[in-house]
Every structure is written in C-alpha cells, then in structure tokens.
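Shapes recur. Our protein:

. . .
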Amino acid sequence: MAQAMLKNSRITLLFETGMNEKGEPIFKGKSYANVRKEATADQLHQAATALASLCAYPVSSVERTDNHDII
C-alpha cells in the first residue's frame, strides 16, 4: 500500500495591493518556507496575523501548501 510522507510545508499570504483600471483587485503573494510540519491551523493563523500586522496591505487570504513524497 502506498504512503504519503510529508516532505515540506510553506505558508503564503495573499495581499490586496490595489485596483486595476477595470476596477478589479490586484493581489500579490508572499511565501514563507520551512513551516513546521506539526503546525496546527490555529498556530498558522497566529503566525499569519503577526506577519500581516507588519505589512502595509490587507491580507486577502492565507494558504498552506504541503509537499509529500509518495512511496
């Protein structure tokens, strides 16, 4: 039976940086690698909130990306 082994994890904060000429929002992302594999959603939310408080733009969303090795 195949198994998925968590290789690494990253968190991405997506910021709304303004509007384009059509009135649509412009988004820019900032990724942070080497997130603890054991980090819970609450812990990641706390970290994202702390990082967002240091930035000039409002956070639109926070994403976690996990990479796995399938063996």
Q: What stands out?
A: The mean pLDDT is 94. Residues 41-52 form the longest helix (12 residues). The beta strands are 4-19, 25-32, 59-70. The chain has one domain: 4-70.
